[in-house]
Amino acid sequence: MGAGFEEMKSIVIFGSGIAGLSAAHELAQLGYSVTVYEATDQAGGFFRSARLGKDNMPTEYSWHGMGPWYHNAFDLMQKIPFSEKGSIYDLALSRPVDFGIFPDTAKAQFYAGFKSIPKMFRMNTREFITWSYVMLKAWTSNNRSTSKYDKLNAAQTWKPFLKDTAYKTWRSCFGPWIGSDWSKVSLHTTGDFFRKQLTTKPPHEHKADHEGPAWTQEAGIGWLLFKGPSSEYLFTPWIKHLKKMGVKFYWEKSLTKLEFDGTTITSAFCGDDKIQGDGYILAINPFITAEILSKTPELEKQEQLKLFKPLIQGGPHIQVSFRLAFSEEIKFPRKRTAVVVSDSEFNLTLFAVEQVWDKEVDLGQNIKSLWTGTSCISSAPGKIYHKPVNNCTKEEFIEEVTAQILSCGALNELIKEANDGKELREFPIIKIEVWHEWKFSPAGITSLQPKWVNSTNTQAFLPAQKTPVSNLFLAGAHTKTQAQVWSIEGAVESGRRAAKAIDDRVGVLNQYQPAWIKFLSGIDDILFTIKAPQLIDSILISLILLIIIYLLA
Q: Mean pLDDT score of the chain, rounded to an integer?
Protein backbone atom coordinates (compact mmCIF):
# COMPACT_ATOMS: atom_id res chain seq x y z
CA MET A 1 0.00 0.00 0.00
CA GLY A 2 1.16 3.52 -0.69
CA ALA A 3 1.48 6.12 2.01
CA GLY A 4 -1.90 7.58 2.78
CA PHE A 5 -4.11 4.70 1.59
CA GLU A 6 -4.95 3.49 5.09
CA GLU A 7 -5.77 7.02 6.26
CA MET A 8 -7.56 8.26 3.13
CA LYS A 9 -9.78 5.95 1.16
CA SER A 10 -12.30 8.47 -0.18
CA ILE A 11 -11.07 11.53 -2.08
CA VAL A 12 -13.19 14.51 -3.03
CA ILE A 13 -11.93 16.60 -5.96
CA PHE A 14 -13.31 20.03 -6.78
CA GLY A 15 -12.83 20.90 -10.44
CA SER A 16 -12.93 18.74 -13.56
CA GLY A 17 -10.32 20.53 -15.61
CA ILE A 18 -7.19 18.69 -16.70
CA ALA A 19 -5.57 18.93 -13.24
CA GLY A 20 -8.59 17.54 -11.38
CA LEU A 21 -9.17 14.73 -13.87
CA SER A 22 -5.46 13.81 -13.80
CA ALA A 23 -5.56 13.47 -10.01
CA ALA A 24 -8.80 11.49 -10.25
CA HIS A 25 -7.28 9.15 -12.84
CA GLU A 26 -4.18 8.38 -10.77
CA LEU A 27 -6.06 7.79 -7.52
CA ALA A 28 -8.92 5.78 -9.03
CA GLN A 29 -6.54 3.31 -10.65
CA LEU A 30 -4.91 2.77 -7.22
CA GLY A 31 -8.26 1.82 -5.69
CA TYR A 32 -9.38 5.05 -4.06
CA SER A 33 -13.02 6.06 -4.01
CA VAL A 34 -12.99 9.32 -6.00
CA THR A 35 -15.77 11.87 -6.40
CA VAL A 36 -15.47 14.95 -8.61
CA TYR A 37 -17.58 18.09 -8.20
CA GLU A 38 -17.69 20.56 -11.10
CA ALA A 39 -19.16 24.07 -11.07
CA THR A 40 -20.25 23.96 -14.73
CA ASP A 41 -22.20 21.36 -16.70
CA GLN A 42 -19.16 19.84 -18.42
CA ALA A 43 -15.54 18.89 -17.88
CA GLY A 44 -12.53 20.56 -19.44
CA GLY A 45 -12.01 23.91 -17.76
CA PHE A 46 -10.05 26.22 -20.06
CA PHE A 47 -9.49 23.47 -22.63
CA ARG A 48 -13.07 22.55 -23.38
CA SER A 49 -14.99 22.93 -26.61
CA ALA A 50 -18.71 23.19 -27.34
CA ARG A 51 -21.32 23.20 -30.10
CA LEU A 52 -23.80 25.90 -29.12
CA GLY A 53 -25.53 27.15 -32.26
CA LYS A 54 -28.12 25.64 -34.59
CA ASP A 55 -25.43 25.32 -37.26
CA ASN A 56 -23.53 22.86 -35.01
CA MET A 57 -20.27 24.77 -35.50
CA PRO A 58 -17.65 23.76 -32.91
CA THR A 59 -16.20 26.48 -30.70
CA GLU A 60 -13.64 26.45 -27.91
CA TYR A 61 -12.19 28.49 -25.08
CA SER A 62 -8.91 28.70 -27.00
CA TRP A 63 -6.88 26.46 -29.25
CA HIS A 64 -3.95 24.73 -27.55
CA GLY A 65 -0.94 22.84 -28.86
CA MET A 66 1.09 20.18 -27.09
CA GLY A 67 4.87 20.50 -27.22
CA PRO A 68 7.64 17.87 -27.19
CA TRP A 69 8.13 18.47 -23.46
CA TYR A 70 4.57 17.41 -22.56
CA HIS A 71 5.84 14.17 -21.03
CA ASN A 72 3.20 13.68 -18.32
CA ALA A 73 0.37 14.68 -20.66
CA PHE A 74 1.40 12.21 -23.35
CA ASP A 75 2.06 9.46 -20.80
CA LEU A 76 -1.45 9.89 -19.41
CA MET A 77 -3.03 9.97 -22.87
CA GLN A 78 -1.54 6.55 -23.56
CA LYS A 79 -3.66 5.23 -20.67
CA ILE A 80 -6.99 6.68 -21.85
CA PRO A 81 -8.89 4.62 -24.47
CA PHE A 82 -10.12 6.68 -27.42
CA SER A 83 -11.95 3.74 -28.94
CA GLU A 84 -11.63 -0.02 -29.08
CA LYS A 85 -8.83 0.54 -31.62
CA GLY A 86 -6.45 2.39 -29.32
CA SER A 87 -5.61 5.19 -26.94
CA ILE A 88 -6.00 8.96 -27.23
CA TYR A 89 -2.24 9.16 -27.75
CA ASP A 90 -2.40 6.71 -30.66
CA LEU A 91 -5.57 7.88 -32.38
CA ALA A 92 -6.51 11.43 -31.38
CA LEU A 93 -3.27 13.42 -31.83
CA SER A 94 -2.27 15.18 -35.03
CA ARG A 95 1.14 15.29 -36.59
CA PRO A 96 3.17 18.45 -35.74
CA VAL A 97 1.86 21.83 -36.87
CA ASP A 98 4.15 24.11 -38.86
CA PHE A 99 4.13 27.38 -36.92
CA GLY A 100 5.07 30.46 -38.91
CA ILE A 101 5.62 34.14 -38.21
CA PHE A 102 3.42 36.18 -40.59
CA PRO A 103 4.25 39.92 -40.86
CA ASP A 104 2.09 42.48 -42.65
CA THR A 105 4.70 43.54 -45.21
CA ALA A 106 7.21 40.67 -45.45
CA LYS A 107 7.17 36.95 -46.26
CA ALA A 108 6.11 34.34 -43.71
CA GLN A 109 9.01 32.58 -42.00
CA PHE A 110 8.97 29.10 -40.49
CA TYR A 111 11.20 27.35 -37.97
CA ALA A 112 13.76 25.09 -39.64
CA GLY A 113 16.31 24.56 -36.90
CA PHE A 114 18.22 26.94 -34.64
CA LYS A 115 19.90 28.68 -37.59
CA SER A 116 16.50 29.79 -38.91
CA ILE A 117 15.75 31.91 -35.83
CA PRO A 118 17.33 35.19 -37.09
CA LYS A 119 15.37 35.09 -40.34
CA MET A 120 12.20 34.03 -38.56
CA PHE A 121 12.28 37.01 -36.19
CA ARG A 122 13.84 39.49 -38.66
CA MET A 123 17.09 39.85 -36.71
CA ASN A 124 20.45 40.86 -38.16
CA THR A 125 23.63 39.08 -37.04
CA ARG A 126 24.35 41.50 -34.19
CA GLU A 127 20.79 41.25 -32.93
CA PHE A 128 20.90 37.47 -33.03
CA ILE A 129 24.13 37.40 -31.04
CA THR A 130 22.76 39.70 -28.33
CA TRP A 131 19.40 37.85 -28.36
CA SER A 132 21.31 34.59 -27.81
CA TYR A 133 23.32 36.22 -25.03
CA VAL A 134 20.18 37.08 -23.04
CA MET A 135 18.63 33.66 -23.72
CA LEU A 136 21.80 31.88 -22.58
CA LYS A 137 21.81 33.90 -19.35
CA ALA A 138 18.24 32.76 -18.69
CA TRP A 139 19.12 29.13 -19.45
CA THR A 140 22.19 29.07 -17.21
CA SER A 141 20.50 30.63 -14.18
CA ASN A 142 18.69 28.66 -11.50
CA ASN A 143 18.14 30.50 -8.20
CA ARG A 144 18.85 33.80 -9.93
CA SER A 145 16.13 33.02 -12.44
CA THR A 146 13.42 32.04 -9.94
CA SER A 147 14.09 34.97 -7.60
CA LYS A 148 15.28 37.77 -9.92
CA TYR A 149 14.54 37.03 -13.57
CA ASP A 150 11.00 36.06 -12.57
CA LYS A 151 10.37 39.77 -11.88
CA LEU A 152 11.87 41.03 -15.15
CA ASN A 153 9.57 41.50 -18.12
CA ALA A 154 11.01 39.38 -20.94
CA ALA A 155 10.11 41.78 -23.75
CA GLN A 156 11.62 44.75 -21.92
CA THR A 157 14.78 42.76 -21.14
CA TRP A 158 15.39 42.05 -24.83
CA LYS A 159 14.29 45.49 -26.08
CA PRO A 160 17.67 47.30 -25.69
CA PHE A 161 19.35 44.62 -27.79
CA LEU A 162 16.90 44.56 -30.72
CA LYS A 163 15.78 47.09 -33.28
CA ASP A 164 12.08 47.86 -33.43
CA THR A 165 11.20 45.32 -36.15
CA ALA A 166 13.03 42.42 -34.53
CA TYR A 167 11.79 43.38 -31.07
CA LYS A 168 8.12 43.47 -32.07
CA THR A 169 8.42 40.28 -34.12
CA TRP A 170 10.15 38.40 -31.29
CA ARG A 171 7.64 39.44 -28.63
CA SER A 172 4.71 38.51 -30.90
CA CYS A 173 5.35 34.80 -30.29
CA PHE A 174 5.03 35.06 -26.49
CA GLY A 175 1.23 35.01 -26.30
CA PRO A 176 0.65 32.35 -28.99
CA TRP A 177 3.42 30.05 -27.74
CA ILE A 178 4.00 30.69 -24.03
CA GLY A 179 0.39 31.64 -23.32
CA SER A 180 1.22 34.76 -21.30
CA ASP A 181 1.32 37.98 -23.30
CA TRP A 182 4.41 40.08 -23.85
CA SER A 183 3.30 42.82 -21.48
CA LYS A 184 3.31 40.39 -18.54
CA VAL A 185 5.51 37.34 -19.11
CA SER A 186 8.81 37.15 -17.24
CA LEU A 187 12.33 36.43 -18.46
CA HIS A 188 12.34 33.36 -16.21
CA THR A 189 9.20 31.88 -17.79
CA THR A 190 10.29 32.75 -21.33
CA GLY A 191 13.80 31.37 -20.97
CA ASP A 192 12.59 28.16 -19.35
CA PHE A 193 9.90 27.70 -22.01
CA PHE A 194 12.35 27.89 -24.92
CA ARG A 195 14.95 25.79 -23.11
CA LYS A 196 12.44 22.97 -22.80
CA GLN A 197 11.22 23.40 -26.36
CA LEU A 198 14.72 23.26 -27.85
CA THR A 199 16.49 20.73 -25.58
CA THR A 200 13.84 18.36 -24.16
CA LYS A 201 14.20 14.57 -23.99
CA PRO A 202 13.06 11.84 -24.44
CA PRO A 203 11.38 12.04 -27.84
CA HIS A 204 7.83 10.79 -28.33
CA GLU A 205 7.30 7.99 -30.84
CA HIS A 206 4.11 7.79 -32.92
CA LYS A 207 2.74 5.01 -35.10
CA ALA A 208 2.16 5.16 -38.83
CA ASP A 209 -1.21 6.49 -39.92
CA HIS A 210 -3.07 7.47 -43.09
CA GLU A 211 -0.71 10.45 -43.51
CA GLY A 212 2.45 8.36 -43.65
CA PRO A 213 4.97 6.20 -41.76
CA ALA A 214 5.81 6.23 -38.06
CA TRP A 215 7.21 9.53 -36.84
CA THR A 216 8.88 11.15 -33.83
CA GLN A 217 8.16 14.34 -31.94
CA GLU A 218 11.41 15.59 -30.44
CA ALA A 219 13.05 18.82 -29.31
CA GLY A 220 12.39 21.69 -31.69
CA ILE A 221 9.61 19.84 -33.52
CA GLY A 222 6.22 21.54 -33.90
CA TRP A 223 3.31 21.14 -31.53
CA LEU A 224 0.48 18.62 -31.78
CA LEU A 225 -3.26 19.27 -31.79
CA PHE A 226 -6.24 16.99 -31.38
CA LYS A 227 -7.86 15.62 -34.53
CA GLY A 228 -11.17 17.09 -33.45
CA PRO A 229 -12.75 19.41 -30.85
CA SER A 230 -11.09 18.97 -27.45
CA SER A 231 -14.22 17.97 -25.54
CA GLU A 232 -15.06 15.35 -28.17
CA TYR A 233 -11.52 14.01 -28.57
CA LEU A 234 -10.25 14.21 -24.98
CA PHE A 235 -12.83 14.86 -22.31
CA THR A 236 -15.71 12.69 -23.52
CA PRO A 237 -13.61 9.50 -23.77
CA TRP A 238 -11.71 10.41 -20.59
CA ILE A 239 -14.86 10.91 -18.51
CA LYS A 240 -16.25 7.66 -19.90
CA HIS A 241 -13.07 5.84 -18.86
CA LEU A 242 -13.00 7.44 -15.41
CA LYS A 243 -16.61 6.41 -14.79
CA LYS A 244 -15.67 2.83 -15.69
CA MET A 245 -12.88 3.14 -13.10
CA GLY A 246 -15.53 4.06 -10.52
CA VAL A 247 -15.13 7.83 -10.40
CA LYS A 248 -18.38 9.63 -9.61
CA PHE A 249 -19.21 13.04 -11.10
CA TYR A 250 -21.56 15.76 -9.91
CA TRP A 251 -22.17 18.65 -12.29
CA GLU A 252 -23.13 22.27 -11.60
CA LYS A 253 -21.89 21.94 -8.03
CA SER A 254 -19.75 24.93 -7.04
CA LEU A 255 -17.59 24.71 -3.94
CA THR A 256 -18.65 27.52 -1.59
CA LYS A 257 -16.95 26.76 1.73
CA LEU A 258 -14.52 24.47 3.55
CA GLU A 259 -15.00 23.56 7.22
CA PHE A 260 -11.69 23.55 9.13
CA ASP A 261 -11.19 22.36 12.71
CA GLY A 262 -7.65 23.70 13.05
CA THR A 263 -6.01 20.48 11.85
CA THR A 264 -8.07 18.96 9.05
CA ILE A 265 -10.90 19.71 6.66
CA THR A 266 -13.99 18.15 8.21
CA SER A 267 -16.41 18.87 5.37
CA ALA A 268 -17.06 21.03 2.33
CA PHE A 269 -20.16 22.75 1.07
CA CYS A 270 -21.58 23.23 -2.41
CA GLY A 271 -24.31 25.65 -1.47
CA ASP A 272 -26.45 23.79 1.07
CA ASP A 273 -25.02 20.39 0.13
CA LYS A 274 -22.60 19.06 2.72
CA ILE A 275 -19.79 16.93 1.25
CA GLN A 276 -17.43 14.73 3.22
CA GLY A 277 -14.41 12.62 2.37
CA ASP A 278 -11.11 11.51 3.85
CA GLY A 279 -9.13 13.85 1.59
CA TYR A 280 -9.87 16.93 -0.49
CA ILE A 281 -8.17 18.26 -3.63
CA LEU A 282 -8.80 21.82 -4.79
CA ALA A 283 -8.35 21.72 -8.58
CA ILE A 284 -10.12 25.00 -9.28
CA ASN A 285 -8.74 28.27 -10.55
CA PRO A 286 -6.81 30.36 -8.00
CA PHE A 287 -9.25 33.29 -8.07
CA ILE A 288 -12.11 31.10 -6.84
CA THR A 289 -9.76 29.29 -4.42
CA ALA A 290 -8.76 32.62 -2.86
CA GLU A 291 -12.41 33.59 -2.48
CA ILE A 292 -13.29 30.29 -0.77
CA LEU A 293 -10.29 30.43 1.58
CA SER A 294 -11.21 33.98 2.60
CA LYS A 295 -14.43 32.63 4.14
CA THR A 296 -12.38 30.65 6.68
CA PRO A 297 -9.69 33.02 8.04
CA GLU A 298 -7.88 30.32 10.06
CA LEU A 299 -7.53 28.22 6.94
CA GLU A 300 -6.45 31.17 4.81
CA LYS A 301 -3.54 31.84 7.22
CA GLN A 302 -1.97 28.42 6.66
CA GLU A 303 1.32 28.07 4.78
CA GLN A 304 0.81 27.54 1.02
CA LEU A 305 -2.81 28.68 1.35
CA LYS A 306 -1.83 32.22 2.34
CA LEU A 307 -0.08 32.55 -1.04
CA PHE A 308 -3.32 32.73 -3.02
CA LYS A 309 -4.08 36.41 -2.43
CA PRO A 310 -0.68 37.61 -3.70
CA LEU A 311 -0.78 34.96 -6.44
CA ILE A 312 -3.82 36.59 -8.04
CA GLN A 313 -2.83 40.22 -7.43
CA GLY A 314 -2.30 40.85 -11.15
CA GLY A 315 -5.91 39.97 -11.95
CA PRO A 316 -7.26 37.64 -14.66
CA HIS A 317 -5.55 37.13 -18.01
CA ILE A 318 -7.59 38.25 -21.01
CA GLN A 319 -7.07 35.96 -24.01
CA VAL A 320 -10.16 36.02 -26.24
CA SER A 321 -10.81 33.22 -28.73
CA PHE A 322 -12.86 33.49 -31.90
CA ARG A 323 -13.78 31.51 -35.02
CA LEU A 324 -13.97 32.56 -38.69
CA ALA A 325 -16.26 30.27 -40.69
CA PHE A 326 -15.89 30.30 -44.50
CA SER A 327 -18.32 28.92 -47.08
CA GLU A 328 -15.47 27.81 -49.34
CA GLU A 329 -12.46 25.63 -48.63
CA ILE A 330 -9.23 27.56 -48.15
CA LYS A 331 -6.04 25.66 -48.94
CA PHE A 332 -2.53 26.22 -47.58
CA PRO A 333 0.69 25.45 -49.48
CA ARG A 334 2.28 23.87 -46.39
CA LYS A 335 0.82 21.06 -44.31
CA ARG A 336 -0.74 21.99 -40.96
CA THR A 337 0.15 25.70 -41.17
CA ALA A 338 -0.22 27.61 -37.88
CA VAL A 339 -0.09 31.39 -37.91
CA VAL A 340 1.26 34.14 -35.66
CA VAL A 341 -0.01 37.41 -37.14
CA SER A 342 3.12 39.13 -35.89
CA ASP A 343 2.24 42.74 -36.69
CA SER A 344 -1.36 42.54 -35.45
CA GLU A 345 -2.25 44.96 -32.69
CA PHE A 346 -4.11 42.24 -30.75
CA ASN A 347 -1.28 39.68 -31.19
CA LEU A 348 -3.47 37.23 -33.11
CA THR A 349 -2.78 33.56 -33.72
CA LEU A 350 -4.77 31.42 -36.16
CA PHE A 351 -5.22 27.83 -37.27
CA ALA A 352 -7.51 26.29 -39.89
CA VAL A 353 -8.76 23.24 -38.01
CA GLU A 354 -9.67 21.16 -41.08
CA GLN A 355 -5.91 20.80 -41.68
CA VAL A 356 -5.72 18.23 -38.86
CA TRP A 357 -9.27 17.26 -37.93
CA ASP A 358 -10.63 13.90 -39.00
CA LYS A 359 -12.79 14.10 -42.12
CA GLU A 360 -15.88 12.90 -40.25
CA VAL A 361 -15.77 15.83 -37.80
CA ASP A 362 -18.61 18.25 -38.58
CA LEU A 363 -17.38 21.83 -39.10
CA GLY A 364 -20.94 23.14 -39.00
CA GLN A 365 -23.68 23.78 -41.51
CA ASN A 366 -22.33 24.98 -44.90
CA ILE A 367 -18.87 25.56 -43.41
CA LYS A 368 -15.99 24.42 -45.61
CA SER A 369 -13.11 26.05 -43.74
CA LEU A 370 -13.03 26.89 -40.05
CA TRP A 371 -10.30 29.07 -38.57
CA THR A 372 -9.88 29.17 -34.81
CA GLY A 373 -8.06 32.18 -33.46
CA THR A 374 -6.98 33.86 -30.25
CA SER A 375 -6.32 37.48 -29.35
CA CYS A 376 -3.33 37.20 -27.01
CA ILE A 377 -2.96 40.71 -25.61
CA SER A 378 -5.72 42.85 -24.15
CA SER A 379 -3.96 46.12 -23.33
CA ALA A 380 -2.70 47.27 -26.76
CA PRO A 381 -4.86 49.68 -28.82
CA GLY A 382 -6.46 48.31 -31.96
CA LYS A 383 -6.10 49.27 -35.62
CA ILE A 384 -9.56 50.79 -36.24
CA TYR A 385 -11.01 52.05 -32.96
CA HIS A 386 -7.67 52.43 -31.15
CA LYS A 387 -9.17 50.68 -28.15
CA PRO A 388 -7.62 47.69 -26.37
CA VAL A 389 -9.56 44.44 -26.20
CA ASN A 390 -10.33 45.33 -22.57
CA ASN A 391 -12.61 48.17 -23.64
CA CYS A 392 -14.01 47.03 -27.00
CA THR A 393 -17.62 46.13 -27.61
CA LYS A 394 -18.10 42.70 -29.13
CA GLU A 395 -18.83 44.27 -32.52
CA GLU A 396 -15.70 46.41 -32.34
CA PHE A 397 -13.60 43.39 -31.38
CA ILE A 398 -14.87 41.43 -34.39
CA GLU A 399 -14.18 44.38 -36.73
CA GLU A 400 -10.68 44.75 -35.31
CA VAL A 401 -9.85 41.07 -35.62
CA THR A 402 -11.11 40.96 -39.21
CA ALA A 403 -9.16 44.07 -40.22
CA GLN A 404 -5.96 42.87 -38.57
CA ILE A 405 -6.14 39.48 -40.30
CA LEU A 406 -6.87 40.99 -43.70
CA SER A 407 -3.95 43.41 -43.24
CA CYS A 408 -1.50 40.52 -42.97
CA GLY A 409 0.28 40.48 -46.31
CA ALA A 410 2.27 37.31 -45.56
CA LEU A 411 -0.92 35.37 -44.86
CA ASN A 412 -2.60 36.69 -47.98
CA GLU A 413 0.38 35.69 -50.12
CA LEU A 414 0.28 32.10 -48.82
CA ILE A 415 -3.46 31.92 -49.45
CA LYS A 416 -2.98 33.22 -53.01
CA GLU A 417 -0.21 30.67 -53.62
CA ALA A 418 -2.41 27.71 -52.71
CA ASN A 419 -5.71 28.98 -54.14
CA ASP A 420 -4.90 29.94 -57.75
CA GLY A 421 -4.26 33.59 -56.94
CA LYS A 422 -7.47 34.13 -54.97
CA GLU A 423 -6.98 36.55 -52.09
CA LEU A 424 -8.17 35.93 -48.54
CA ARG A 425 -10.72 38.77 -48.65
CA GLU A 426 -12.39 37.07 -51.63
CA PHE A 427 -13.44 34.05 -49.55
CA PRO A 428 -16.95 34.58 -48.14
CA ILE A 429 -17.17 34.56 -44.34
CA ILE A 430 -20.39 32.95 -43.08
CA LYS A 431 -19.92 34.07 -39.48
CA ILE A 432 -17.41 35.25 -36.92
CA GLU A 433 -18.03 33.82 -33.46
CA VAL A 434 -16.48 34.74 -30.11
CA TRP A 435 -16.36 32.29 -27.18
CA HIS A 436 -19.69 32.81 -25.43
CA GLU A 437 -18.36 33.32 -21.89
CA TRP A 438 -16.72 36.66 -22.71
CA LYS A 439 -18.81 39.68 -21.69
CA PHE A 440 -17.74 42.87 -23.49
CA SER A 441 -18.20 46.26 -21.89
CA PRO A 442 -16.61 49.73 -22.16
CA ALA A 443 -15.95 49.34 -18.43
CA GLY A 444 -13.86 46.22 -19.08
CA ILE A 445 -14.18 42.72 -20.51
CA THR A 446 -14.94 39.88 -18.10
CA SER A 447 -15.33 36.11 -18.27
CA LEU A 448 -17.45 33.63 -16.37
CA GLN A 449 -14.23 31.86 -15.33
CA PRO A 450 -11.25 34.14 -14.68
CA LYS A 451 -8.02 32.77 -16.13
CA TRP A 452 -4.66 32.88 -14.37
CA VAL A 453 -1.27 32.75 -16.11
CA ASN A 454 2.37 33.19 -15.10
CA SER A 455 3.58 36.79 -14.99
CA THR A 456 6.28 38.96 -13.42
CA ASN A 457 4.54 38.89 -10.03
CA THR A 458 3.56 35.23 -9.60
CA GLN A 459 6.65 33.02 -9.28
CA ALA A 460 7.26 33.71 -5.58
CA PHE A 461 3.67 32.80 -4.70
CA LEU A 462 3.20 29.46 -6.45
CA PRO A 463 1.85 27.05 -3.80
CA ALA A 464 2.93 23.45 -3.42
CA GLN A 465 0.41 20.64 -3.92
CA LYS A 466 0.79 19.50 -0.31
CA THR A 467 -0.51 21.89 2.36
CA PRO A 468 -0.02 21.97 6.16
CA VAL A 469 -3.62 20.79 6.43
CA SER A 470 -3.16 17.03 6.49
CA ASN A 471 -6.07 16.16 4.20
CA LEU A 472 -6.12 19.17 1.88
CA PHE A 473 -4.21 19.21 -1.42
CA LEU A 474 -3.91 21.56 -4.38
CA ALA A 475 -3.82 20.90 -8.13
CA GLY A 476 -3.63 23.19 -11.13
CA ALA A 477 -0.99 24.74 -13.36
CA HIS A 478 -0.87 27.64 -10.88
CA THR A 479 0.92 25.35 -8.38
CA LYS A 480 4.64 24.49 -8.34
CA THR A 481 5.61 22.20 -11.20
CA GLN A 482 8.68 21.42 -13.26
CA ALA A 483 6.70 22.55 -16.32
CA GLN A 484 6.91 26.02 -14.74
CA VAL A 485 4.26 27.52 -17.00
CA TRP A 486 0.47 27.53 -17.16
CA SER A 487 -0.12 24.73 -19.68
CA ILE A 488 -1.72 21.35 -20.26
CA GLU A 489 1.51 19.72 -19.16
CA GLY A 490 1.59 21.85 -16.00
CA ALA A 491 -2.01 20.85 -15.24
CA VAL A 492 -1.38 17.11 -15.69
CA GLU A 493 1.86 17.25 -13.69
CA SER A 494 0.16 19.15 -10.86
CA GLY A 495 -2.70 16.65 -10.73
CA ARG A 496 -0.23 13.79 -10.52
CA ARG A 497 1.79 15.57 -7.83
CA ALA A 498 -1.36 16.18 -5.78
CA ALA A 499 -2.21 12.48 -6.09
CA LYS A 500 1.38 11.55 -5.20
CA ALA A 501 1.11 13.65 -2.03
CA ILE A 502 -1.71 11.26 -1.03
CA ASP A 503 -0.10 8.06 -2.33
CA ASP A 504 3.58 7.87 -3.20
CA ARG A 505 2.97 5.07 -5.70
CA VAL A 506 1.81 7.71 -8.18
CA GLY A 507 4.44 8.31 -10.85
CA VAL A 508 5.42 11.79 -12.07
CA LEU A 509 7.76 12.31 -15.02
CA ASN A 510 10.44 14.97 -14.56
CA GLN A 511 11.44 17.61 -17.08
CA TYR A 512 14.78 16.99 -18.75
CA GLN A 513 17.64 19.43 -18.28
CA PRO A 514 20.90 19.01 -20.24
CA ALA A 515 23.95 18.22 -18.12
CA TRP A 516 25.79 21.31 -19.34
CA ILE A 517 22.92 23.57 -18.24
CA LYS A 518 22.77 21.88 -14.83
CA PHE A 519 26.52 22.35 -14.43
CA LEU A 520 26.59 25.99 -15.49
CA SER A 521 23.48 26.95 -13.51
CA GLY A 522 25.04 25.29 -10.46
CA ILE A 523 28.06 27.57 -10.84
CA ASP A 524 25.75 30.56 -11.22
CA ASP A 525 23.98 29.59 -7.98
CA ILE A 526 27.32 30.09 -6.22
CA LEU A 527 27.85 33.43 -7.96
CA PHE A 528 24.33 34.52 -7.07
CA THR A 529 24.89 33.62 -3.41
CA ILE A 530 27.94 35.89 -3.23
CA LYS A 531 26.11 38.60 -5.24
CA ALA A 532 28.45 38.29 -8.21
CA PRO A 533 27.31 38.96 -11.81
CA GLN A 534 25.56 36.21 -13.72
CA LEU A 535 27.84 33.47 -15.03
CA ILE A 536 27.75 34.57 -18.68
CA ASP A 537 28.32 38.18 -17.62
CA SER A 538 31.19 37.05 -15.36
CA ILE A 539 32.83 35.15 -18.22
CA LEU A 540 32.52 38.17 -20.51
CA ILE A 541 33.88 40.55 -17.85
CA SER A 542 36.79 38.18 -17.22
CA LEU A 543 37.63 38.01 -20.93
CA ILE A 544 37.55 41.80 -21.23
CA LEU A 545 39.84 42.17 -18.20
CA LEU A 546 42.26 39.58 -19.60
CA ILE A 547 42.37 41.41 -22.93
CA ILE A 548 43.02 44.74 -21.16
CA ILE A 549 45.79 43.19 -19.02
CA TYR A 550 47.33 41.61 -22.12
CA LEU A 551 47.27 44.90 -24.02
CA LEU A 552 48.73 46.83 -21.10
CA ALA A 553 51.47 44.22 -20.71
A: 96
